[in-house]
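Entry 0007
Protein: (R)-citramalate synthase
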Amino acid sequence: MAYLCWPKLGNSTTVLNCKCWKSNSCKPFGFQVVTKFPTTLWIKRYQKRIWLCTMDHQQPNPPPLALDRIDIYDTTLRDGSQGENISFTVIDKLRIAKTMDEFGVQYIEGGWPGSNPKDVEFFKRAKKELHLGHAKLVAFGSTRRKGIDCQDDANLRLLTEAETPTVTIVAKSCEKQVVKVLNVSLEENLAMIEESVRYLKEHNKEVMVDAEHFFDGYKQNAAYALACLDAAIRGGADVLVLCDTNGGCLPWEIYETTRSVVSHFGSHQRIGIHCHNDMELAVSNSLSAVYAGASLVQGTMNGYGERTGNANLVSIIPTLQLKMNYNVVGSKLSSLTELSRWMDEVTNLPHQPSRPYVGDCAFAHKGGLHVAAILKDEQSYQHIDPALVGNRRRMLISELSGRGNIVDKMKQMRLVTDSQLQDPEWKRRIQGILEQVKSLENKGYTFEGAEASIELMIRRTLNNYRSPFELLDFTVLTGNKRVYYGESLSGDNIVTDGVISPETFRNESITQAIVKLGILETSNGACPIERTRCFEAAEGNGPLNAVNLALKKALVRVHAPLEHVNLQDYKVRILDNESATAAITRVMVEFYDAETKRVWSTVCAHSNIIVASVQALMDGFEYALLQRLPACFIHSEDESSTKSPVLL
Ligand SMILES: CC(=O)SCCNC(=O)CCNC(=O)[C@H](O)C(C)(C)COP(=O)(O)OP(=O)(O)OC[C@H]1O[C@@H](n2cnc3c(N)ncnc32)[C@H](O)[C@@H]1OP(=O)(O)O
Ligand SMILES: CC(C)C(=O)C(=O)O
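Output (structure tokens):
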């Protein structure tokens, strides 16, 4: 005899539909109400084939279960590596496991030893090299193959040889998958699950069963889906993990089904959730399952994984901790942003700025109304304090800005004080800067990705700033040259019967740039003492390269630290395709200072791509100098009237 337990039904009319997994019939069938407590209805199961009663009733959803803690199970190294373009080396895997342990997750799934030699190697090295302080390492595999004994199954043997405290096996729990894909009888699948779990328990493992396609299986034949979980329990499974393998379920479906499972097994049974992101719902679905009583969440860092990915732990962890009050990783939460970006570096995938919580844009504010409100009340347009997850607030400057955006920027740059903001003269300046931004964006600039350009633009409107140099002239010559080798390798003449043999020459593009600069010289970081005029020329493999080299040569003569400044990225966008070659071109240049490790970007737009590029380059070098020698070029307002820069 066994009993099934349902949560409170109340006094509303209740229809019980009992399902038999063999016939999948769904009609009132073979149950007996034993007793009715005020909160719980007990149903006696008197036929072995009846596995579950489902019901329709008018009760509102029951309140969420109050769980003591939620365990985080990181499967980045297994399911994450099933994502396209992701391939970890053994060393990567060891580093990631160590880092995730330090971050404070409870389980780290290291891989599938039955899948490939790399994962076997990982578990072998992990035994010696990976000393986890907090998390349990997990080896992943599947239930035994059909028609064999567990002790003859290589996959199960390798799982035990991985010597991890915990093992997770994937089990089919959807009738259709069992019949069509596994191609075994429903009974044989139940036996595969039960025996595999028992075998692993006999090897003293903590065993989790990932019930693949559970939610789809439950829709198709709930009784059989539950029978699979029952088989796992009979084998001794510690955790039952419900999987939305195809990522096609809605949050309320996940909630209802998880709630039923939790009710079926009782709240002492650990239930886990594993969601995929095919409808962008993996995070919501995982949280819905927690709300319904699941106490373990499987997911991956940054949501890496098969197809569109897995549930993103980088969103789930802060939500559990900050919104649902579970202490998941404690104070380590403030390293989340750094961790997420580090994972992108290890996987060699670009940082996605729009990622919630940790993306560069997660707390970036653009609209003037938003910025103005935030200046009055920090949290006006933020759901949390960014510092809680190690991120930062950013105010963007663009044509959608209001005065608030400029004020914020100037405050950050310590260019204006609260009392100055009351001064009509400063108000006029700020309005002037705002208008300049809007006018330049109308001409093709975009200041959002080019914070160095906006900073320079603001400084140049103030009396106390001297530009450290000025480009007086520049010339760029570019052309194509045919270079002859003399005789060909075979020793034939260059010209045979009036035809030039192809192997006797090559085409070379040659570009030369000449720049004339007026540069303010400084002495030991003090104020500029002299103005120097410099001519320089350089050859490069294209116009930008040649100008960059010539500029740098000239500037380094006066300011040696600029030697470390390098052009890192160069993006060109034609803004008005219809005007073809007469279109405005926007150039954005990214710089890197190898000594200070700073990165910054500048922007310029012009109908001449070379002019736009040269201006963006000049701004980049100017910003570098400003960072390194601020005292040389910024003065008190009084000083500046006598030392205004007049270049030769
Ligand atoms: C939903 C998930 O993400 S589950 C994890 C999926 N991850 C991976 O598949 C990555 C690792 N996989 C692998 O390295 C390989 O697929 C292996 C080593 C596991 C198996 O490789 P092969 O032996 O060549 O089999 P192949 O992959 O072609 O087919 C899978 C076999 O496993 C069987 N199988 C599938 N699920 C299960 C299961 N839960 N229990 C037992 N057998 C299963 C299939 O029926 C099929 O067997 P069949 O060909 O006899 O019908
Ligand atoms: C193996 C399991 C956990 C899986 O990836 C899935 O079913 O989605």
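Curator remark: Residues 79, 170, 210, 212, 243, 245, 274, 276 surround 3-methyl-2-oxobutanoic acid (ligand 2) (CB under 6 Å). The radius of gyration is 34 Å.
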